[in-house]
Structures are given as structure tokens and as C-alpha cells.
Amino acid sequence: MPESALVRDASTTALLIVDLQNDFLHPDGAYARGGQTSDAIAALPARVAPVADALRNKGGWVVSTQFTLVPGKNDEPLISPHLKALRPFLGRGDFAPGAWGHRLVDRLQPADLVVEKVAYSAFYMTRLEWVLRKVGIDTLLVAGIVTNGGVASTVRDAHVRDLRVGVLEDGCGAFSRQAHETAITDMGSIATVLRCEEAAEAVLGA
């Protein structure tokens, strides 16, 4: 599907930003403290920002989905076993609701809608579908991390909900270039793959 055909009406289009949060990206965030950094991921906010600006200028929406570690007793986070095994450095205060590390990075602020998520897909056990329907969004431009995790799961769940989906190829990232490229290729069967510059132009031309 051509980019211009994907974005039919900017007012019913949203940039869906998956997990571009301080704890993932900022030098003082949880992942940097744990030694998990990526130059490719750190570069994403600057690439995605023009798409967000275009949507704001045309009356569209910016939606931030934010990975969350729900605090339990004594503020110890409730962490899935697979994640604890992969990221043993995560602990108390990381990705906590309302905390600095939980928030969308400054470069992409403000978001019109914010949705907490607890798993890869931003639709799993969240209010995302409800708020998208409530404000009349039928088209998503998806960016964020990681391409083969949160992005891919969210895109597939959006597809089965009959939402029109575009994936911003250079607005997504993973800790492996191969993982990123494979995921982008796979998503091409259910979504329009385009670059951030193309998405911004499509929005401004809608």
C-alpha cells in the first residue's frame, strides 16, 4: 500500500510510540545502569520526532505505550520470570508508574494518550484498544522498541483488530540489526513498511 494511501485522514491517525522511555534510552536509565545500551535505539527519538510534529500540526494523535513494572509489597516489582532471567539488573523503582524512568523521553513529549503495558503487546490487558476507538483512530504509525518484541507483537494485535498499520522502519530498533531486519520483513505481510520521512510527508499531505 502506498504511504499516501495509508494515511487517509490525519485526525484519525496516531503515531504509536512503543516503549521509548527514559529507563530504556537515557544514560541514567535502568538499562544503561545495567550495561544494556544501543546506539541504534538511542537514535530513534530524533528520527521519530518529525512524524510526531507532523501529526500535531495536522490534528492527529501521539500515543505513548509505556512498559511498566508494577510495584508489589515493599515496592518490589512484579517481574515475569523470562524477563528476570534476561534482565537480572531490573529492580525496585525501575519502570515504576509515574517515575522519571517510566516516562516517555523528552524529545517526543508530550503524548496525547499514555497507556501502561505489562507485556510485549501494547494491547495485552491494557486500555489501548478502548482509547483508540473512543477518539476515532483507525490508522496507526508504529515506532519504538524492540522491533522483534514489543513492536511486532503490537503490530500483529493491531492488524487482527482491523486497524490500518504502518511500521516506521527507521523509527524502530532492536539490540541486533539482524533481529530488526527480520522483524521488519515479517511485518511487511500485514502492515505498510515506510520510513519516518515518508510518514511525515504522508501525514502533511493528508
Instruction: Give the low-confidence spans.
Output: none
- Taken from the alpha-carbon principal axes, the silhouette is globular
- Write down the secondary-structure element order: HEHHHHEHEHEHEHEH
Number of helical regions: 10
Question: Any idea of the CATH class?
Answer: Alpha Beta
Name the helicity range.
Answer: 25-40%
Rg over alpha carbons? 16 Å
Q: Give the mean pLDDT.
A: 96
CATH topology: Rossmann fold
Spatial strand order of the main sheet: 3-2-1-4-5-6
Please provide the count of β strands.
6
CATH architecture: 3-Layer(aba) Sandwich
How far apart lie the N and C ends?
15 Å
Concise overview:
By secondary structure, this protein is of the alpha/beta class. The chain has one domain: Rossmann fold (3-Layer(aba) Sandwich), CATH 3.40.50.850.
Structure notes:
The chain is an alpha/beta fold. It has one domain (3-205): Isochorismatase-like (Rossmann fold, 3-Layer(aba) Sandwich), CATH 3.40.50.850. The protein has helices spanning 3-6, 22-25, 30-33, 39-42, 44-57, 81-86, 128-134, 147-160, 177-187, 196-205; strands spanning 13-18, 61-67, 113-117, 139-145, 164-173, 192-194. It is globular and about 50 Å long. The mean pLDDT is 96.
Tags for this model:
alpha/beta; single chain; globular; Rossmann fold; 6 strands; 6-stranded parallel β-sheet; 206 residues; 18% strand; 10 helices
